[in-house]
Amino acid sequence: MRVFTDTGGKVKQSEFKRWLADRGATFEQGTKHLKVYLNGRQTTLPRHPAHEISEPLRKAILKQLNCK
């Protein structure tokens, strides 16, 4: 599964969060991060809404949440 392929492998944190929420993810606020829960799994997402997330980080988050 590829997400946001037109951005050259990078996506803004706020867009990725919205994409995860559309798939049923829930979020819990941390100090400098968000805890993300989906499919009985948990991971963290850096909380910098205007900044981009790199492709390797995006893939790692999807793998940790068992999203394929």
From TrEMBL:
SUPFAM superfamilies hit by this protein: YcfA/nrd intein domain
Pfam family, one: HicA_toxin
InterPro entries recorded: HicA_mRNA_interferase
Coiled coil, from the record: none
EC nos: 3.1.-.-
Tree of life domain: Bacteria
Enzyme class: hydrolase
GO molecular function: hydrolase activity; mRNA binding
Hydrolase found in the keyword field: yes
Keywords of this entry: Hydrolase
The protein, known as: mRNA interferase toxin HicA
Primary gene name: hicA
